[in-house]
Amino acid sequence: MSEQGERSRGHPLIRLPIVGSPIGQGSGGVCCPMFSGPERLMVGSGEFQFINCTASCTDPKRIVLETALNKTLLEHKTQWKLFKVYNISKDEELLCSSTCGGKQETKVFHITVFYPPKQVLLTLSPTSVVVGTLFTIECRVPAVGPLECLTVTLLRGTDILCNQTFVGTALSPQDAVVTHNTTAHREHGLYNFSCEALMDLRSRGGGLIHRVSDPQRLEVKEPVPNNPMGTIITIVVVLPLLLVTFVLLYRYWLWTRHN
C-alpha cells in the first residue's frame, strides 16, 4: 500500500532501520568491517528493533549481542547475526561483540525511546456559529516526545490555517496543544477541518511518523435580520396594556385612601 494511502487513513508511518545490515563483499571478496563506532537509534516506546552484529573477519570465533532485553536470533551466517530486540520501554545500550584472530571487537548501540503520536484530537468550539463571530480550533496530541521533533498543522480543506513546530529537549511524553482563533465566514461551512501531526526523527537516526485527526465540519449560520415591523407591533400592543395597568393601579390606590 502506498504512503499516501496509509496517511489518508490516519495510521502512523514508522520506518525502523535494520541496523548494521549484513556485510557485503568487496572486489577482492574481503568483508567490510562494521565496528566503526557507536550507533544511535530511536525506537518507539514498547516497540522492537532489528540489530545486526557483524564481524570484520571471515572466521570469527563468536558473535554475541549483549542485552538484558528479550531478543530472538532471526538469521545468521558465518560473519553476522541478525537479532530482533523486543519491548523496548526505556533508553538502553546494546553491545555487539565478536572475536577475530584472538582479538575482541565491539560496537555499542545507544537506543533512545521516543513516544510517537498515536492520537490527534481536533475540537471546534462552538460547532455552530453565526457568520462574523469567532470560533476556536484546538488540536491536541497526547503523550508525545520529544516535542522538538513534532510539527502540528491545522487545515481547512487543503489550506493551512496554522503550522507550529515545538521546541524543548525533554524526552518524556507530553501533550502537544495548538489553538487557533478565527472569524467564521460562509465558506467555512463547505470544508472539513483537520489536524496533522508529523514527527521527524531522521536527524536522530529514526524516520517520519505521520498521523491525521478525524475531520470535523463547522455549521455556519446566517445572522438573523432586524425586523422593524415586529418592533412596531410590539410597541403598539404592549404600550396600551401598560397604560391600562397604570390607570387601574392608580384608581385602586385612590379607593384605598378613601376607605
UniProtKB/TrEMBL annotation:
UniProt-listed Pfam families: ICAM_N
Signal peptide: none
One term under GO cellular component: plasma membrane
Entry's transmembrane regions: 229-253
Compartments in which it is found: Membrane
One Gene Ontology term from the biological process aspect of the record: cell-cell adhesion
Disulfide bond listed as a keyword: yes
Domain of life: Eukaryota
Entry keywords, A to Z: Cell adhesion, Disulfide bond, Glycoprotein, Immunoglobulin domain, Membrane, Repeat, Signal, Transmembrane, Transmembrane helix
Residue ranges of coiled coil: none
Record has Transmembrane helix as a keyword: yes
Entry-linked InterPro entries: ICAM_N, ICAM_VCAM, ICAM_VCAM_N, Ig-like_dom_sf, Ig-like_fold
SUPFAM superfamilies: Immunoglobulin
Membrane topology: Single-pass type I membrane protein
Domain Intercellular adhesion molecule N-terminal: 38-119
Gene Ontology MF terms: integrin binding
Family to which this protein belongs: Belongs to the immunoglobulin superfamily. ICAM family.
Protein's UniProt name: Intercellular adhesion molecule N-terminal domain-containing protein
